[in-house]
Amino acid sequence: MTSTTTPQIQSQAAASSEPAFAADLPEGFTQVVREVNGTLIHTVVGGTGEPLVLLHGWPQTWREWRYMLRPLADLGYTVVAPDLRGTGGSAVTEAGYDKDNQARDVHELLQVLGLTGPVRIVGHDIGGMVAFSYARLYPEQVRKLALVDLAVPGYGLEEIMDPASGGLFHFGLFMTHEAPELLFQGNEKAFLTWWFAKMAANSKAFPPEEIDTIAASLSGPDALRGGFEHYRTMLQDGRDNRAWGEAGGVLTMPVLAVGGEHSVGGYLAQTLRPVVPAVQESVIAGSGHYIPDELPEALLSVLVPFLA
């Protein structure tokens, strides 16, 4: 399939099959850019077998999963790790960042890649919000769903977003139009150094060279905007999820809720129970928010038996 840009799409990568986002690409994995759902999505793919989709969080890209790609592929999965809309090698668009629409990005990407069977999905942070929407919209096509250290919009996120009750301040800032881009442009590395020290319990998970790589992916106002747009739709995402739940929606496929001991812990599983009655819970001891970077082997130890 030939990928082309349109005036509405500002691409961070050339519309080719070999964009320059291959740092730490594991052996046997390739990267492609495909036009889906009106935008360009960059993804890393490797392995053979049933599809396993890994969806990253903010401020990262597919590289969040770099320690886990090869081990999961070796278990007999076709592992697909896309950059979410507006991040990494995927295009920055003017709109379309609500999680239901991004679930459609992923759904169309799998179709274009010829991966049409039931899928397993693992989502961390914002990627987990997209994964939840995917399971809502395409329940018959999801074999298993694993959500890693997040709060789902409509089911626990709003409480975490409220600084007046002890919630995290950054949600309100990131939702503000233009202001975070102005504040962070040119200061990406300094901000990320502070951010990861605050959010990760394992101080060795983000050495300076890793922060440099992530900062480079956020360089420039379009890249920053692409990241913050994920936050600007969260109130609507919550309304969409709650409307589904209030209409009697529940997820019946196996769902695993994973939290870092020093981050959401068991909160994710607790808040999901109204719409995921049989949710399974796992807390990763010693980890903060960024479990795939901090303790990838510990995360694999709970994901592998669940996904099997």
From TrEMBL:
Give the matching Gene3D superfamilies: alpha/beta hydrolase
Annotated keywords: Hydrolase
InterPro entries per UniProt: AB_hydrolase_1, AB_hydrolase_fold, Epox_hydrolase-like, Ser_caboxypep_his_AS
Q: Known Pfam families for this protein?
A: Abhydrolase_1
Q: Which residue ranges does the record annotate as region Disordered?
A: 1-20
Keyword tRNA processing assigned:
no
- Indicate the segments forming the AB hydrolase-1 domain, all copies: 51-291
GO MF annotations in UniProt: hydrolase activity
Isomerase found in the keyword field = no
| Domain of life of the native organism | Bacteria
Q: What is this protein called?
A: Alpha/beta hydrolase
